[in-house]
Structure formats: C-alpha cells, structure tokens
C-alpha cells in the first residue's frame, strides 16, 4: 500500500456520523427496500453475506482499507470506533486468509460496536454464526492474518463494489448489505416508508384475487413484447 503524504493521516479519528435517530428508523426497513428507493445503488456484491440468516445490522460506517490477508488497520479501527458503529472493511474480496475471528468479534461486541461488514474472509465461523454479534463476510478461511502492513481507517473505500464514506448508513440483513450516503438518509427513509405501504397494499390486493399488476401490459408494449392493441 502506498505511503500517505505527511498531510494525510492513515487514521481519521473524528468523523460525522448519521444520527442515532435515523439509524433507529432505518433499522426497521429491509435492506432490499432501502436499496430500491435509493435507485438500486449502494448494495455490496452478493459474496458478502451474514454468517447466520438471522443477523441484522444498522449503523454508521467506520471504514477500513487493508492489504489482502493483513488486519492491522482493523485493530486500529476497533480502537477509534464508537458504540453503534459498523466496521466496514475493504479486504479486496480476498479469501486466502481470515481478517477477523472470535477474539476480535468479542472485543468489538464488548465495546458496543454494532457489527462487521468485511469484503474478505473470517474464521471461527461456528462460534460466530451461533453468537449474537452480526458479521457479514465474503467467505471463510482458517488461515490467520498478518499484522504488519499499513492500511487506512475512516477514508472512503470501495467494498464489494459499493462506495462507502465514513459515517454513511450501513444496513444489512439476510439479503445482504446496502450503504446509503449520510446526507441522503432522511430522504431515503421517507421513500422507504412509502414503498413499504405500497407493497403492503399490493400484497393485500393479490390475496383478494388481483394477481396481475396494472402496469404489466404497458411495459410489455414499451419493450416490444406486445403489439399495440394486443393483450395478454
């Protein structure tokens, strides 16, 4: 990893976070709902999955960039993160070595961290999957990491194809992880509630027998699948 200039710290300690009230509100929504109303952007690649399908997480991002197989910067992130933060690690998708295990997860949970989202491998998966601390990762590997290569903490990262800035909202559940830019969270939550209400109404209508969406034929004509005047 290239050496930072003397004017740029590798560890940024003070970041502006999405507010606890907005985190609490966002935690009520599925990641899929938030992703839809955010323009179907901000989702991490599907290789990043919860260790158990019941795991959910929501909170402001503390971002970490590491060289594959080295977790020194993650230890630094644990030292500067605040209760409620989600540590998001750009591990380059590498699965040759685990970046965290039970010891680091226990440390994180004990200090109030909300969860880990790691584009890389983890280990001690049996213990972690049966625990209560949310961990999302790209894979598993029993090989342990090194702790000798410089990384970065609380600078923008690209994790599993999603851009993540420090303090952005991170929400994860059984479907995966979505990241919402901090400045956009309040607007997205309004849209999310409208979508939840609309979907509830549509599901109720389907159960009453309205099984064909009203927009279907229009879109089929626009796509050239139905001729003008043709019906299903």
TrEMBL record:
<feature type="binding site">
    <location>
        <begin position="101"/>
        <end position="104"/>
    </location>
    <ligand>
        <name>substrate</name>
    </ligand>
</feature>
<dbReference type="Pfam" id="PF03737">
    <property type="entry name" value="RraA-like"/>
</dbReference>
<feature type="binding site">
    <location>
        <position position="123"/>
    </location>
    <ligand>
        <name>substrate</name>
    </ligand>
</feature>
<keyword id="KW-0479">Metal-binding</keyword>
<feature type="binding site">
    <location>
        <position position="124"/>
    </location>
    <ligand>
        <name>Mg(2+)</name>
    </ligand>
</feature>
<keyword id="KW-0460">Magnesium</keyword>
<dbReference type="GO" id="GO:0032259">
    <property type="term" value="P:methylation"/>
</dbReference>
<keyword id="KW-0489">Methyltransferase</keyword>
<dbReference type="GO" id="GO:0008168">
    <property type="term" value="F:methyltransferase activity"/>
</dbReference>
<protein>
    <recommendedName>
        <fullName>Putative 4-hydroxy-4-methyl-2-oxoglutarate aldolase</fullName>
    </recommendedName>
</protein>
<dbReference type="InterPro" id="IPR005493">
    <property type="entry name" value="RraA/RraA-like"/>
</dbReference>
<keyword id="KW-0808">Transferase</keyword>
<dbReference type="InterPro" id="IPR036704">
    <property type="entry name" value="RraA/RraA-like_sf"/>
</dbReference>
<dbReference type="GO" id="GO:0046872">
    <property type="term" value="F:metal ion binding"/>
</dbReference>
């Amino acid at each position: 990893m290239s050496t930072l200039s003397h004017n740029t710290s590798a560890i940024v300690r003070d970041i502006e976070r999405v507010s606890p009230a907005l985190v609490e509100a966002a935690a009520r929504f599925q990641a899929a709902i938030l992703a839809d109303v955010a323009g179907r952007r901000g989702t991490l690649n599907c290789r990043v999955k919860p260790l158990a399908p019941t795991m959910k997480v929501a909170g402001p991002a503390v971002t970490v960039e590491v060289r594959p197989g080295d977790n020194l910067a993650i230890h630094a992130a644990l030292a500067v993160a605040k209760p409620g933060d989600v540590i998001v690690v750009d591990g380059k998708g590498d699965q040759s070595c685990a970046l965290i295990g039970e010891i680091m997860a226990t440390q994180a949970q004990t200090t109030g961290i909300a969860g880990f989202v790691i584009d890389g491998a983890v280990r001690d998966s049996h213990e972690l999957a049966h625990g209560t601390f949310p961990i999302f990762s790209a894979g598993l590997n029993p090989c342990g990491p090194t702790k000798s290569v410089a990384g970065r903490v609380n600078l923008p990262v690209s994790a599993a194809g999603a851009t993540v800035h420090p303090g952005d909202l991170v929400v994860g559940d059984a479907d995966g992880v979505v990241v919402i830019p901090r400045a956009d969270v309040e607007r997205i939550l309004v849209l999310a509630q409208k979508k939840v209400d609309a979907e509830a109404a549509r599901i109720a209508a389907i159960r009453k027998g309205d099984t064909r969406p009203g927009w279907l034929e229009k879109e089929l004509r626009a796509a050239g699948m139905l001729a003008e005047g043709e019906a299903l």
